[in-house]
UniProtKB/TrEMBL annotation:
A Pfam family it matches: STAS
Record CDD domains: STAS_anti-anti-sigma_factors
Recorded superkingdom: Bacteria
Role summary: Positive regulator of sigma-B activity. Non-phosphorylated RsbV binds to RsbW, preventing its association with sigma-B. When phosphorylated, releases RsbW, which is then free to complex with and inactivate sigma-B.
Keywords associated with the record: Phosphoprotein
Ranges for domain STAS: 4-108
Family: Belongs to the anti-sigma-factor antagonist family.
Name of protein: Anti-sigma factor antagonist
UniProt keyword annotation of Transmembrane helix present: no
Keyword Phosphoprotein: yes
């Protein structure tokens, strides 16, 4: 399955990046290419909507780790929202849920 990545909303302080499909070794570079530039804007919030991501592997986690590192370096922030249970479980198992801003409820 392919991955679609789209910046849904953007203003001077916030962007919403929506991803749909599967994030794996083949599709992760597409996500990284869209996400990393947003994390390099100072005092900027990037919300990553993962409600339509049905699968993610360690390569996908690596993209989010890189993005988190970039937010720290650039005084920006990232919030992951609307994670499906399967994807959320991956963040729980790896302990990333402890260091990343993740909101998995319906109102994320």
């Amino acid at each position: 399955m392919d991955l679609q990545v789209e910046i849904m909303e953007q203003d001077e302080e916030t962007a919403v990046l929506a991803a749909a499909g599967e994030v794996d070794a083949y599709t992760a570079p597409k996500l990284k290419e869209a996400l990393l530039p947003l994390t390099k804007k100072e005092n900027f919030l990037v919300k990553v909507d993962l409600k339509d991501v049905s699968y993610m592997d360690s390569t996908g986690l690596g993209v989010f780790i890189s993005a988190l590192k970039s937010t720290k370096e650039n005084n920006s922030s990232m919030k992951l929202v609307h994670l499906q249970d399967r994807v959320l479980r991956l963040f729980e198992i790896t302990g990333l849920i402890e260091i990343m801003d993740i909101e998995w409820g319906a109102n994320g």
